[in-house]
Amino acid sequence: MKKKPIRHTKTYHRRMIIIIGIIATVAALVITRIGFFDTSENRSIDFRFKLRGAEKPPAPVVIVAIDEESFRNMPERWTWPRDVYGRVVDNLVKWGAKAIVFDVVYSEPTVRNPEEDLAFANAVKKAGNVVLGMRFVVEQTEKFKKTLVQLPIPELRKNAYDIGLVHHVFDEDTHVRKNYMRLDHGERQYYSLSLKALGAYYRQNAVPLNMDSQVLRWGELTVPLYKGNQFLINYAGPPGTFETVSFHKVYHGKDAGPEVFKDKIVLIGSTAEILHDVFLTPFSEKGNMMPGVEIHANVINTIMTKDFMKQMDNFSAFWLVLAIGLATSFMVFGIRTLAGLGILAAEVLVYFAVSQWFFVEHNYIIRLVDPLFAMVLCYLSISTYKVGVEEKESRKIKDVFSKYVSKNLVEELLKNPDVKLGGEKKEVSILFSDIRGFTSMSEKMGPEEVLEILNEYLTEMTEIVFENGGTLDKFIGDAVMALFGTPLYYKDHAYRAVKTAAMMKEKLAQLNEKWEKEGKNRLKIGIGINSGEVVAGNMGSLKRMEYTVIGDNVNIASRLESLNKELGTEILISEKTYEQVKDFVEAKKHMEIKVKGKENYMDVYEVLSFAEKEKIQKPL
Question: I need a surface site. Which of 338, 404, 506, 619 has the fewest CB within 10 A?
Fold first, then answer.
């Protein structure tokens, strides 16, 4: 026993779209949770920084740059003697610097002259506000890796106000977006150079420092933490945003003085690329990297201004992606694929604008790439299903109508989303044509000759129907039933039907001349046309369906065709049809005609001649 074909209803397709949207949302959650887009998410943060643009840093920070200009203007070539730094410290103290911070690690004694280290140490001691750098170094042994702590030499360390970590946090793409607030080694804790610089500025070295996984508290400072020991840097701008003075100017005491350094945090460090202390940051473009000393300046500026960055946690991100996925599925649920693309584009733009607003106005980093991925995945999944369904429906329409209408009309049907095939009431015109006396004529002809004449006749009549935008409903033996105004509606359906009748009459005359020369019989036809409301749609059984129309107005058109034999006419139209085409036809009125199957008498019109319009109206 053959299985019945499965017919999927609109309800079924709606349920499938909902299910697909949920599955796509879950898939987006899984893909985003495993960190697949982490690098892209970080790059989106960089883009938001660039879109925000540079801001003038209000923190009292000045950078003394060990740069190429200083290499050319210092009395000695690099590397410089340690007493050079002592002289710079002396000048900065004289000019009122409140904290002097070296983003340099002096972990080895000078090999030139021990007196240089002593001179530098004395200057540091005298200043009383110098913070020195320290770092961790990983050393590879034969069996394992060993982490070493590199501290300033004892002479400097004991005279410094404090020491701090010079390290930054590197993301997978080697960009620096965070700073270590603390790193542990054994039982010792070492804090950020930037934090210690602020401790020197506020003179709070003796104040207890408390730190948990959420926040660091130290005197006047309260710093929110990221991942327990890191800090999100709110970059003020690209390299060169902070006021910078070349090292040689401070050393020589020229073009620099208290007007620049008084009550400032002075950061001393390398900005020359040849010293390799430069890094990629959110503002890096085309390899433009930021010196490590300026990254510390950005950390200090962020903490002093309390302009802290906050990043969405994983729990909130999970619910955001879930909500975005379901919302996208809901928005594209009941609309066409192309319209859904417009909705998706609008959703993406709105979401990006909202994320940028949170970033600029509230320093809040909401996830950008993960939700956008959820939007696109849900749209593509649902649209793929919709396209598949639409293609199936298109093939169905082509299969149904390619036999009944022209190829151009089939394409118009596929483009028109308002066409209904399930059944609807419509105002149309119905044409019936029939060959007079064909049955008795065919009895005198051979079967091959009958088919040859009939096929040639029906082919020509069908082409005329198609040419005028009509639908071939069916052949009933030698009779033709054609529809105008359905399934694609034309306002001038009556005009098209009458024009078709006139062209059929003219074409038959041409065929008769041809057949007569070939020694074949001539044909006569009768045509009936009526206009009015009918029920149109696919009708039949599950195994065989056809597009057709039913209703009393269909019966009237058929009766008018039959009436031609009684009245001796060729084309008869109803009064309803005549009212719509009276400006284009010459017609003879037949009054009070009894039509089979109708109780009341009717007025009918015999079309004697037809005049074409200049243009046929396009479908509405």
Answer: 338
Kindly state the tokens that stand for 292: 């490590």
For 233, residues 6+ apart whose C-beta sits below 8 A from its C-beta are 176, 177, 178, 179, 295, 298, 299, 302, 309
Contacts of 28 by beta carbon, 8 Å cutoff, 6+ apart: 321, 325, 370, 373, 374, 377, 378
Is residue 487 reached through a cis peptide bond, with omega within 30 degrees of 0 on the bond before it?
yes
**Cα–Cα dist 582/577, whole Å:** 8
In this predicted structure, the answer to whether residue 38 has a pLDDT above a threshold of 80 is: yes
Please report, rounded to a whole number, the percentage of residues in the chain having pLDDT higher than 90: 58
CB 291, CB 270: distance < 8 Å: yes
Lowest mean pLDDT among 16-20, 408-412, 520-524: 408-412
For the packed helices 38-52 and 369-401, what is the interaxial angle rounded to 10 degrees? 110
User: Which tens digit of pLDDT belongs to each residue from 123-177?
Assistant: 999 999 999 999 999 887 777 788 899 999 999 999 999 999 999 999 999 999 9
Distance CA 535, CA 350 (A): 46
Q: Which residues contact 181 (CB under 8 A, 6 or more apart)?
A: 191, 192, 195, 211, 216, 223, 225, 229, 230, 231
Peptide bond into 79 cis (omega under 30): yes
Residue 415's region, left for phi above 0, alpha for psi from -120 to 50, else beta, is alpha
Supply the DSSP symbol for 220.
T
Determine phi and psi for 614, rounding to 5 degrees: -65, -40
> Of 260, 267, 324, 255, nearest to 293 (Cα)?
267
Higher-pLDDT residue of 248, 111: 248
Which contiguous run of DSSP H or E holds residue 548? strand 545-550
Distance CA 610, CA 582 (A): 10
Measured at the alpha carbon of residue 83, what is the angle toward residues 78 and 85, in degrees to the nearest 5? 70
The whole-chain average pLDDT of the chain stands at 87
Task: Kindly state the percentage of the chain with pLDDT values over 70.
Answer: 90
Beta strands in 116-256 (DSSP E): 130-140, 145-150, 162-165, 168-170, 176-180, 182-185, 188-191, 209-211, 215-218, 221-224, 230-232, 244-246
pLDDT reading at 251 higher than 80: yes
What's the whole-model pTM score? Answer: 0.67
Structure letter (DSSP) for residue 35: T
For 284-347, the three-class secondary structure string (H helix, E strand, C coil) is CCCCCCEEHHHHHHHHHHHHHHCCCCEECCHHHHHHHHHHHHHHHHHHCCCCCHHHHHHHHHHH
Q: Are 509 and 444 in contact (CB under 8 A)?
A: no
Check residue 437 and report its DSSP letter.
T
> pLDDT grade, residue 365 (50/70/90)?
very high
**How would residue 615 be classed by pLDDT, with cut points 50, 70 and 90?**
very low
Is pLDDT at 84 greater than 90 in this prediction?
yes
User: SS3 of 492, please?
Assistant: coil
Residue 296 and residue 132 in contact, taking contact as beta carbons nearer than 8 Å:
no
